[in-house]
Amino acid sequence: MNTFKILIPLHTMPDTKSFITLFFENLLPVIKNRTKVQIMWLVYTPEKLPVIPQNNSEDIILDIHNYKNALEVIQKEKPDIIYASETWQFIDYALSSTAKLFHIPVFCMVYSDIWIAKSTTKNIISNLNRFFQNSIPTDTELHKKKFMKRGRFYIYKYLFLLRTMMALKTDRLQTLFKIWKFVLLDRLDPRFASETIQFLENESLIKQRLDLGFNKSNLIVTGNPIYDAAFHKISNQKNTAKKDGIIHVLFAPSTLYEHGFWTSKQREYAVKETVRQIIKNGKGMSITVKIHPSSSVLSDYKSLIHPIDSSIPVYQKGDIQDFLKDSDLEITFQSSTTEVYALLAKKPIIICNFFNIQGDVFLERGLAIDCKDPSSIITSIDTALSSNPASEQKREDFIREFMYKWDGRAAERICDKIIELVEKRKVNQ
After folding, report:
1. What is the pTM of this model?
2. Alpha-carbon gap, residue 249 to 427, rounded angstroms
């Protein structure tokens, strides 16, 4: 097969770690071993990129500000297949809607819903509050903040979709009413992705998708490629936590504030108190902080942590698996994929649940220690190290239920289907 093009909408630059970049970081090497492929990253950020960097001759970075709508993107760039979420994301929906006109296959990865669920009321309040925020989750420096930046970015993406609907001559009023309803309620509508091929992280997602009204023939259970590398690393390495008599704590605060679950005061309290307790009572302990690679603001966390102890390293870049490898245990908040990586690496997990948020699967299944008060952190560390709550049986049960076949071959299964879709389209052209 000749070289084929994959178009991928992305809200960051491709070198920033996110679910999407991790997904393709593990998938693309497998595809490239089978055939030639060109990646086109359609980057959508609040401002036009000052310079469009081109990392190599294969990948292309496209700035969404250079296009009026999704129809223009597809007509100019001519992708053979498109990655687009099946949810209400404006840019993804614009691309998937346009793809139908050209009979271009669309695919996405569906993750397990193992994190915190919000009520409808909380969804509406959270989304309205975020609309007025002066930054977006992918900002990395405070100086990038602007008045109501997040809301204005919402409007930009909304108008991009509106222009797409006008170009496609669809029922714009009905479509846009549905879009805003799903923005407020965070509910999926299968009509948004009636022809999208959905690669599922586990088998339980089949029933969930069918109950939502999705087509069974478009649901394919593959497992998640982002855990393929973890399988190979963990299978071939020994525990390398330092044997120096010091307890090495990895503090990986999850993005509950950045995604509207917490207020800024809650985040400040949780981060500061966690660090203070370890510094105050943790003789013989060291702490390393690893924040989210794209959703967190590095300077925010440094301003919270360094006044307490300026020697504490705070990292944003780097592979979480490498940080876990050199740690004895992980402390986090809820709703974080770092919990999964820590479980896979057989590292004890402590969840600082200071505000008694419900719905974390790791707590419900006894895979982590529930620390409800900062004063209990040191006791929780001692308990976790003496007896990891995630027994081997609990670990295996979690992998079986949420990760399908954790065998390091999820990318291969997805690759097979992608090539099949592209070849079928080329035959029918």
Report:
1. 0.79
2. 55
